[in-house]
Amino acid sequence: MDVQMKRGLLDVCVLAAIQSEDSYGYRIIKDVKPYVDISESTLYPILRRLEEGRLLTVRSVEHNGRLRKYYHITDAGLARIGDFKRDWGEMEKIYRFITKEGKQ
Amino acid sequence: MSRDAFIGELRHRMAGLPQQTVERTVEYYSELIADSVEDGLSEEEAVSRLGSLEEIVANVVKDTPLTRIVQTRVREGKRKGISGWVILLLVLGAPVWLPLLIAALAVFLALFVALWAVVIALWAAVAAVILTGFVAMVAGVAELCRLHLARGLVLLGGGLMCLGLCALAFLLMKLITAGAAKLCKWIWTGIKSLFVGKSNKE
Questions:
Q1: How many CA atoms lie within 13 A of B138 on its CB side?
Q2: Which residues pair with A23 in a beta bridge?
Q3: C-alpha neighbours within 13 Å on the C-beta side of residue B42
Q4: A26 contacts in B (CB within 8 Å)?
Protein backbone atom coordinates (compact mmCIF):
# COMPACT_ATOMS: atom_id res chain seq x y z
CA MET A 1 0.00 0.00 0.00
CA ASP A 2 1.12 3.57 -0.64
CA VAL A 3 3.21 4.86 2.29
CA GLN A 4 1.34 8.15 2.71
CA MET A 5 -2.00 6.38 2.54
CA LYS A 6 -0.98 3.80 5.12
CA ARG A 7 0.33 6.49 7.42
CA GLY A 8 -3.00 8.27 7.39
CA LEU A 9 -4.89 5.03 7.88
CA LEU A 10 -2.74 3.98 10.83
CA ASP A 11 -3.43 7.28 12.59
CA VAL A 12 -7.16 6.67 12.32
CA CYS A 13 -6.81 3.01 13.34
CA VAL A 14 -4.97 3.97 16.51
CA LEU A 15 -7.62 6.59 17.30
CA ALA A 16 -10.32 3.99 16.68
CA ALA A 17 -8.60 1.61 19.11
CA ILE A 18 -9.01 4.16 21.93
CA GLN A 19 -12.39 5.45 20.80
CA SER A 20 -14.66 3.46 23.10
CA GLU A 21 -12.33 3.31 26.10
CA ASP A 22 -8.83 4.41 27.05
CA SER A 23 -6.16 1.93 26.10
CA TYR A 24 -2.40 1.35 26.43
CA GLY A 25 0.39 0.58 23.98
CA TYR A 26 0.40 -3.21 24.15
CA ARG A 27 -3.37 -3.50 23.81
CA ILE A 28 -3.54 -0.97 20.95
CA ILE A 29 -1.06 -3.05 18.96
CA LYS A 30 -3.01 -6.23 19.74
CA ASP A 31 -6.30 -4.61 18.68
CA VAL A 32 -5.02 -3.03 15.47
CA LYS A 33 -2.68 -5.81 14.26
CA PRO A 34 -5.39 -8.11 12.84
CA TYR A 35 -6.45 -5.32 10.47
CA VAL A 36 -3.32 -3.35 9.57
CA ASP A 37 0.34 -4.25 9.77
CA ILE A 38 1.57 -2.31 12.80
CA SER A 39 4.66 -2.93 14.89
CA GLU A 40 5.91 -1.70 18.24
CA SER A 41 8.37 0.68 16.62
CA THR A 42 5.81 2.12 14.20
CA LEU A 43 3.21 2.76 16.92
CA TYR A 44 5.61 4.91 18.91
CA PRO A 45 5.98 7.81 16.43
CA ILE A 46 2.23 7.64 15.71
CA LEU A 47 1.35 8.10 19.37
CA ARG A 48 3.78 11.00 19.64
CA ARG A 49 2.38 12.62 16.54
CA LEU A 50 -1.20 12.24 17.72
CA GLU A 51 -0.30 13.60 21.13
CA GLU A 52 1.49 16.60 19.63
CA GLY A 53 -1.54 17.23 17.42
CA ARG A 54 -3.75 17.03 20.54
CA LEU A 55 -5.81 14.21 19.07
CA LEU A 56 -5.18 12.23 22.24
CA THR A 57 -3.96 12.83 25.77
CA VAL A 58 -1.76 10.62 27.94
CA ARG A 59 -2.00 9.80 31.62
CA SER A 60 0.03 7.40 33.72
CA VAL A 61 -1.87 4.87 35.82
CA GLU A 62 -0.41 2.63 38.51
CA HIS A 63 -0.61 -1.00 37.46
CA ASN A 64 1.03 -3.93 39.28
CA GLY A 65 3.53 -1.68 40.97
CA ARG A 66 4.59 0.10 37.80
CA LEU A 67 3.26 2.92 35.68
CA ARG A 68 1.31 2.28 32.53
CA LYS A 69 0.45 5.01 30.05
CA TYR A 70 -3.18 5.20 29.03
CA TYR A 71 -4.19 7.10 25.91
CA HIS A 72 -7.44 9.04 25.89
CA ILE A 73 -9.06 10.35 22.72
CA THR A 74 -9.88 14.09 22.57
CA ASP A 75 -12.72 15.81 20.75
CA ALA A 76 -10.27 16.63 17.96
CA GLY A 77 -9.44 12.92 17.75
CA LEU A 78 -13.11 11.99 17.47
CA ALA A 79 -13.48 14.67 14.79
CA ARG A 80 -10.60 13.05 12.87
CA ILE A 81 -12.45 9.71 12.86
CA GLY A 82 -15.54 11.58 11.64
CA ASP A 83 -13.49 13.16 8.85
CA PHE A 84 -12.24 9.76 7.83
CA LYS A 85 -15.76 8.33 7.62
CA ARG A 86 -16.88 11.24 5.51
CA ASP A 87 -13.82 10.95 3.23
CA TRP A 88 -14.55 7.26 2.90
CA GLY A 89 -17.94 7.97 1.34
CA GLU A 90 -16.18 10.04 -1.30
CA MET A 91 -13.52 7.38 -1.79
CA GLU A 92 -16.21 4.78 -2.41
CA LYS A 93 -17.77 6.96 -5.06
CA ILE A 94 -14.38 7.31 -6.76
CA TYR A 95 -13.78 3.57 -6.42
CA ARG A 96 -17.08 2.79 -8.14
CA PHE A 97 -16.16 5.23 -10.91
CA ILE A 98 -12.74 3.61 -11.38
CA THR A 99 -14.03 0.03 -11.44
CA LYS A 100 -16.89 0.94 -13.78
CA GLU A 101 -14.41 2.56 -16.19
CA GLY A 102 -12.25 -0.55 -16.01
CA LYS A 103 -15.06 -2.81 -17.27
CA GLN A 104 -15.75 -0.86 -20.43
CA MET B 1 18.34 -10.39 24.98
CA SER B 2 17.02 -9.68 28.47
CA ARG B 3 14.95 -6.62 29.28
CA ASP B 4 17.80 -4.88 31.11
CA ALA B 5 20.29 -5.59 28.32
CA PHE B 6 17.81 -4.24 25.75
CA ILE B 7 17.09 -1.06 27.70
CA GLY B 8 20.81 -0.56 28.37
CA GLU B 9 21.67 -0.91 24.69
CA LEU B 10 18.76 1.37 23.75
CA ARG B 11 20.02 4.10 26.10
CA HIS B 12 23.54 3.65 24.81
CA ARG B 13 22.49 4.10 21.20
CA MET B 14 20.29 7.09 21.96
CA ALA B 15 23.06 8.97 23.73
CA GLY B 16 23.12 12.48 22.34
CA LEU B 17 19.37 12.72 21.93
CA PRO B 18 17.46 15.06 24.26
CA GLN B 19 17.05 13.57 27.74
CA GLN B 20 13.27 13.84 27.57
CA THR B 21 13.16 11.91 24.30
CA VAL B 22 15.39 9.17 25.73
CA GLU B 23 13.24 8.79 28.85
CA ARG B 24 9.98 8.70 26.91
CA THR B 25 11.30 6.10 24.51
CA VAL B 26 12.69 3.93 27.31
CA GLU B 27 9.39 4.20 29.22
CA TYR B 28 7.43 3.21 26.13
CA TYR B 29 9.50 0.12 25.39
CA SER B 30 9.83 -1.03 29.02
CA GLU B 31 6.05 -0.78 29.34
CA LEU B 32 5.58 -2.91 26.22
CA ILE B 33 7.99 -5.55 27.52
CA ALA B 34 6.27 -5.60 30.94
CA ASP B 35 2.83 -5.92 29.33
CA SER B 36 4.02 -8.71 27.00
CA VAL B 37 5.45 -10.62 29.95
CA GLU B 38 2.19 -10.15 31.85
CA ASP B 39 0.42 -11.57 28.79
CA GLY B 40 2.45 -14.77 29.09
CA LEU B 41 5.48 -14.18 26.88
CA SER B 42 9.00 -14.75 28.13
CA GLU B 43 11.22 -11.70 28.52
CA GLU B 44 13.39 -12.78 25.58
CA GLU B 45 10.37 -13.28 23.33
CA ALA B 46 8.97 -9.91 24.33
CA VAL B 47 12.24 -8.17 23.50
CA SER B 48 12.69 -9.93 20.16
CA ARG B 49 9.18 -8.86 19.10
CA LEU B 50 10.14 -5.19 19.39
CA GLY B 51 12.25 -5.38 16.23
CA SER B 52 15.84 -4.34 15.69
CA LEU B 53 17.45 -1.65 17.81
CA GLU B 54 18.75 0.07 14.67
CA GLU B 55 15.22 0.49 13.37
CA ILE B 56 13.88 1.72 16.71
CA VAL B 57 16.63 4.31 17.12
CA ALA B 58 16.46 5.37 13.45
CA ASN B 59 12.72 6.03 13.89
CA VAL B 60 13.37 8.18 16.96
CA VAL B 61 16.16 10.12 15.22
CA LYS B 62 13.90 10.75 12.24
CA ASP B 63 11.36 12.40 14.57
CA THR B 64 13.87 14.61 16.36
CA PRO B 65 14.91 17.88 14.66
CA LEU B 66 18.64 18.30 14.06
CA THR B 67 18.67 21.56 16.02
CA ARG B 68 17.48 19.74 19.16
CA ILE B 69 20.16 17.08 18.74
CA VAL B 70 22.95 19.64 18.38
CA GLN B 71 21.57 21.64 21.33
CA THR B 72 21.70 18.53 23.49
CA ARG B 73 25.23 17.81 22.36
CA VAL B 74 26.41 21.29 23.24
CA ARG B 75 24.68 21.21 26.63
CA GLU B 76 26.14 17.81 27.36
CA GLY B 77 29.58 19.21 26.62
CA LYS B 78 28.99 22.03 29.08
CA ARG B 79 27.78 19.69 31.80
CA LYS B 80 30.75 17.39 31.43
CA GLY B 81 32.92 20.51 31.53
CA ILE B 82 35.05 21.10 28.50
CA SER B 83 38.51 21.92 29.85
CA GLY B 84 40.03 25.36 29.35
CA TRP B 85 42.61 23.87 27.02
CA VAL B 86 40.02 22.54 24.65
CA ILE B 87 38.33 25.95 24.50
CA LEU B 88 41.70 27.62 23.94
CA LEU B 89 42.51 25.18 21.12
CA LEU B 90 39.07 25.69 19.59
CA VAL B 91 39.54 29.45 19.60
CA LEU B 92 43.13 29.36 18.31
CA GLY B 93 42.24 26.73 15.76
CA ALA B 94 39.27 28.70 14.46
CA PRO B 95 41.16 29.99 11.39
CA VAL B 96 41.70 26.35 10.44
CA TRP B 97 38.45 24.57 11.31
CA LEU B 98 36.03 27.37 10.57
CA PRO B 99 36.91 27.59 6.84
CA LEU B 100 36.94 23.78 6.69
CA LEU B 101 33.47 23.65 8.24
CA ILE B 102 32.18 26.30 5.87
CA ALA B 103 33.75 24.46 2.93
CA ALA B 104 32.12 21.19 4.02
CA LEU B 105 28.73 22.87 4.32
CA ALA B 106 29.23 24.54 0.93
CA VAL B 107 30.08 21.19 -0.64
CA PHE B 108 26.91 19.65 0.81
CA LEU B 109 24.84 22.56 -0.44
CA ALA B 110 26.47 22.37 -3.87
CA LEU B 111 25.78 18.64 -4.13
CA PHE B 112 22.18 19.23 -3.11
CA VAL B 113 21.72 22.00 -5.66
CA ALA B 114 23.48 19.96 -8.37
CA LEU B 115 21.24 16.96 -7.74
CA TRP B 116 18.07 19.01 -8.06
CA ALA B 117 19.47 20.98 -10.99
CA VAL B 118 19.83 17.70 -12.89
CA VAL B 119 16.27 16.72 -11.98
CA ILE B 120 14.91 20.11 -13.07
CA ALA B 121 16.96 20.02 -16.29
CA LEU B 122 15.54 16.60 -17.16
CA TRP B 123 12.00 17.86 -16.54
CA ALA B 124 12.73 20.86 -18.75
CA ALA B 125 13.96 18.53 -21.49
CA VAL B 126 10.74 16.50 -21.28
CA ALA B 127 8.69 19.70 -21.45
CA ALA B 128 10.70 20.85 -24.49
CA VAL B 129 10.06 17.59 -26.33
CA ILE B 130 6.33 17.77 -25.52
CA LEU B 131 6.24 21.29 -26.96
CA THR B 132 8.18 20.14 -30.04
CA GLY B 133 5.68 17.32 -30.52
CA PHE B 134 2.70 19.67 -30.46
CA VAL B 135 4.33 22.21 -32.76
CA ALA B 136 5.37 19.48 -35.22
CA MET B 137 1.83 18.13 -35.31
CA VAL B 138 0.28 21.54 -35.88
CA ALA B 139 2.84 22.19 -38.63
CA GLY B 140 2.13 18.76 -40.07
CA VAL B 141 -1.60 19.46 -40.31
CA ALA B 142 -0.85 22.83 -41.89
CA GLU B 143 1.40 21.20 -44.49
CA LEU B 144 -1.26 18.60 -45.25
CA CYS B 145 -3.77 21.37 -45.79
CA ARG B 146 -1.35 22.91 -48.27
CA LEU B 147 -1.29 19.50 -49.99
CA HIS B 148 2.39 18.87 -49.21
CA LEU B 149 1.61 15.26 -48.39
CA ALA B 150 5.08 13.83 -47.68
CA ARG B 151 6.25 16.77 -45.59
CA GLY B 152 2.99 16.82 -43.66
CA LEU B 153 3.09 13.11 -42.83
CA VAL B 154 6.72 13.27 -41.67
CA LEU B 155 5.94 16.20 -39.36
CA LEU B 156 2.79 14.55 -38.03
CA GLY B 157 4.58 11.25 -37.42
CA GLY B 158 7.54 12.96 -35.81
CA GLY B 159 5.22 14.90 -33.52
CA LEU B 160 3.41 11.75 -32.44
CA MET B 161 6.72 10.03 -31.72
CA CYS B 162 7.80 12.94 -29.53
CA LEU B 163 4.57 12.80 -27.53
CA GLY B 164 4.79 9.03 -27.20
CA LEU B 165 8.35 9.21 -25.92
CA CYS B 166 7.32 11.89 -23.46
CA ALA B 167 4.61 9.68 -22.00
CA LEU B 168 7.32 7.11 -21.19
CA ALA B 169 9.82 9.77 -20.09
CA PHE B 170 7.20 11.22 -17.77
CA LEU B 171 6.86 7.94 -15.87
CA LEU B 172 10.64 7.63 -15.66
CA MET B 173 10.94 11.22 -14.40
CA LYS B 174 8.45 10.56 -11.66
CA LEU B 175 10.62 7.67 -10.47
CA ILE B 176 13.78 9.78 -10.68
CA THR B 177 12.23 12.65 -8.72
CA ALA B 178 10.94 10.32 -6.02
CA GLY B 179 14.39 8.70 -5.89
CA ALA B 180 16.13 12.04 -5.47
CA ALA B 181 13.75 13.03 -2.67
CA LYS B 182 14.36 9.70 -0.94
CA LEU B 183 18.13 10.14 -1.29
CA CYS B 184 18.00 13.60 0.31
CA LYS B 185 15.91 12.31 3.20
CA TRP B 186 18.25 9.38 3.70
CA ILE B 187 21.35 11.62 3.74
CA TRP B 188 19.63 13.99 6.20
CA THR B 189 18.85 11.14 8.61
CA GLY B 190 22.45 9.98 8.17
CA ILE B 191 23.79 13.41 9.12
CA LYS B 192 21.57 13.46 12.20
CA SER B 193 22.73 9.98 13.19
CA LEU B 194 26.31 11.27 13.27
CA PHE B 195 25.42 13.22 16.39
CA VAL B 196 23.69 10.36 18.16
CA GLY B 197 24.90 7.37 20.09
CA LYS B 198 28.61 8.01 20.31
CA SER B 199 29.20 9.62 23.66
CA ASN B 200 29.37 6.32 25.57
CA LYS B 201 31.88 4.83 23.20
CA GLU B 202 34.22 7.79 23.28
A1: 6
A2: A71
A3: 5
A4: 31-32, 35-36, 39
pLDDT in tens, chain A (104 residues): 777 788 888 999 999 999 999 999 999 999 999 998 888 888 988 999 999 999 999 999 988 888 899 999 999 999 999 999 999 889 888 889 988 865 55
Domains and CATH numbers, chain A: 3-103 (1.10.10.10)
**What strand order describes the sheet that includes A66-73?**
A23-24, A66-73, A56-63
Cα A16 versus chain centre, distance: 5
What global pTM score does this model have? 0.59
Interface contact A44, partner B, CB < 8 A: yes
Q: What b/e readout covers B135-172, taking b as 16+ CB neighbours within 10 angstroms?
A: ebbebbeebeeeeeeeebeebbebbeebbeebeebeee
| CB of A33 less than 8 A from some CB of B | no
ipTM of the complex: 0.83
